[in-house]
Proteasome assembly chaperone 2 (Collybiopsis confluens), 255 residues
Amino acid sequence: MPFIHDNSTALRGKMLIIPIISSANVAQLSIDLLINSLGLVRFAILDSQYFIPLTGSREDGQPGITTPFELFGKDGLDFVIIQQRSPTLKVEPKKQEFIDDLFKFVEQSGFNSVLILSGVDSSNRSDEQMLTPTFQLQPNELPLSSTQLHRLVTFPIPKYTSPVPQKPSEDGEPRVPFIPGGGIARRVLSSMPARWDIPIAALLRFALDGDNRADAYSLASIVAQVAGINIQTVAWRQPESWVGLFGTPHDQSLY
């Protein structure tokens, strides 16, 4: 997964945050908020061969164009963020090729941890999952203590389990739980190469399609705290591209 443009921002030792296109696009919306509110800048365009073609103008009149897969960061922060704006192609083997290439990119860049974000279809929640909308999932037993993910150990976010019964795997190894509406999130979490030693965790947010700004603000706030950001100092700012995204405001004179 080569850079098409790169200003040589150092990646080694940082955490990589990856949104998965999934239920209500809540992962992408939360990334939009983090990019705009933390003043992150695009420093790399990544290979887009795996995605449905997309292009458009950039936020705030910035020069250049928007592409499906871009990397954002900022000096002084120990994490970088991917924004994915277009789904992966449905044809095989493109999905698995993308996932394999993504793991190679993580390893070759020297990231010390990965945080996956995904929406989950709220209509599939169990009774216990009605108590909170956000859950965490760790697909392996690698210790988080030496990485930016260590905050998840004590963070008050419950562990995610499948809302429906699952058959045990044939080899007896624990499976990644079913994630309804999670796009390729489960496939990514299930595809770690053998002898993988980079901790990976996921934040999963139950949501339904609609006006998901509140979901995005909530998930972005949690991600910021996991990344070590004091959210009391963050001036949350939604991007200009959200204007009209969820419909125009009601004419209050009607009421």
